[in-house]
Automatic annotation (TrEMBL):
Entry similarity comment: Belongs to the peptidase S9A family.
Residue ranges the record marks as coiled coil: none
Enzyme Commission code: 3.4.21.26
Domain Peptidase S9 prolyl oligopeptidase catalytic: 475-686
Residue span(s) of domain Peptidase S9A N-terminal: 4-410
Protein name, as recorded: prolyl oligopeptidase
PANTHER family: PROLYL ENDOPEPTIDASE
Record key words, sorted: Hydrolase, Protease, Serine protease
Catalytic activity: Hydrolysis of Pro-|-Xaa >> Ala-|-Xaa in oligopeptides
One Pfam family here: Peptidase_S9_N
Keyword Protease among UniProt keywords: yes
Amino acid sequence: MRYPEAPRLDLVETLHGHRIADPYRWLEDDADPRTQEWSQAQDALAEELLSGLPMRPAFAARLEQLVHAGAVGVPAWRGGRAFSTRRDPGQEHAVLRVREADGAVRVLVDPTALDPAGTTTLDAWSPSWEGDRLAYQLSTGGDEESRLYVLDVATGEVLDGPIDRCRYSPVAWLPGGGELFYVRRLAPDQVPAGEEQFHRRVWRHRVGAPADTDELVHGEGSDPTTYFGVHTSRDGRWLVVSGAAGTAPRDDVWIADLAGDGELRELQVGVDAQTTAWVARDGRLWLVSDRDTPRRRLAVADPADPATWVPEAWQDVVPQLPDAVLSDVALVDGPEGSLQVLAVHAVDATDRLSVWAGDGSGRLADVKGLGAGSISGVSSTPEGGSSAWVGYTDYATPPSVLRWDAASPTSLAGWEQADVAGEVPELTVVETHATSADGTPVHLFVLSGTGRPDTPRPAVLYGYGGFNVSLTPAYSAQALAWVGAGGVWAVANLRGGSEHGEEWHRAGMRERKQNVFDDFAAAAEHLVAEGWTTHAQLGVMGGSNGGLLVGATLTQRPELAAAVVCSAPLLDMVRYELFGLGRTWNDEYGTAEDPTELGWLLGYSPYHAVREGTAYPAVLFTTFESDTRVHPLHGRKLAAALQHATTSEAPIVLRRETSVGHGARAVSRTVGLAADQLAFLAQHTGLAPR
């Protein structure tokens, strides 16, 4: 391969006694003419290599069908109206709709109608308690810089907005729809240079009033990286505020009686645990917490009596289970009006539903009929009722909604099914376990057309392993297209995720991050040992934190796989905190400002682990120029380093996109990216057209 020229700087810094080379520091600067020229040359190389891949047209055609499968969101019920999202085949983005009490359905927000170019996304939305007003947030060009609006549900008239600086802002309405609580960053001129992405505050806003007249509620003196949550009770009496520094697995929680003095009082502060709290229609304070219960429990307390706020005084409704992780709950009315809880638990990354008595007397029923799938959420009517709505997906089922009713507590009925575009290939899911380096079992889902390792075939291993994210089964056009072409697709449930609760998460973060990479390598070795594939037929794939995962894998074990797809990755772990939202992740990874933690980071940082004279596998980096979470510099720097160091003829390719960011994107952009990724993997694992 003849790669674009990338000058190597003789730049070595000494940090806490470590001499750290950084020859491609100049690639961090988007505005540097050298970076722009080099990036354009990489664009030309990527276009030449990817457009000529033999299986790209077939994958693009298949993905065009599979990606355009529909998706239905779990409804939020307010005032007899159901608000939900739906995307039908052919639509670039989901629309937000309202279903009236008479069954009539209207579209309230259509991102494509607002922006035919498809670069505007709907980031979040929240209806008022009465269902007559809707707060929603939009961003454009992939920057995720949400702008908040309020509209009249009956007329569609925009009543307020845009209010800027509302990225990651929850909304909590007060009764009547005239006021709401929300989260907004301080103006850039009120914060230190370079910290414009931080410094959030909780505000009370009157609809239609200028945002600069909002009442400051909370946040002064907090850590600049703090994310806040807000929740109000339906009667408007109680306000709950939570705050967590960055993505730390702990939060502080305060509660205020708005009918009293309105002062926020400490419910949980300075505790190494996460607790979600809200006051429900029965007047009790409900708490989902991993405090001393890493697999989480559901308990209740009295919001008016601080003596009941300590965990020792909580009354369990759904206790911690020994083999399952509590992820979601909905309150419903039983057949005789007694309060019940519909609870979602995950067992080995597969979600289960069960029904519990609201008075804490125990489990009432297990809900049948769900396969190896995921429950995306459960909802019920806040004023009470015997029904609940359950979001469901699995590897072959697009996100759809089922209905549960207390009259038939062990079964589910259809509510709204997403359409499938094209024919879903025959698919069998096998669950198996690898053994990691320290003896820890690692669960895998293996997808194939036969359900057995009858002959080794090209395989893709996907993983994430971080930030308490659980990889439960979900509809995947990429997986279906790969399996339909004759390959094997595997998903590994690595430490660092939430598949087995908070202890599983912490076993893969900070000084224990190497466990994640060991788990992934063990999963790959297991697929080979069981006969599913060979090292020469194996590709590995991951994005974001999963990009770090495969970046560490290819630099630690270059012989493990034949091909690597590394998307929107973190790769320079010495300087990751200086860009994007990196500063919010130092509780997950550690910080280079601390001598000990710098040692952890250098122990696996992919950019610093590249060794000249090594035969690296084929690597495709995919980066997004508008990514405000993970800066594209990471992909640039490791691509340049590998292109310089490798002795292999396998290509190192950098594919970048503009006007798209880390998160949501138009469906057509998804097809193009996925087709390139799968065709690249096919080329270098030997997957041939049928």
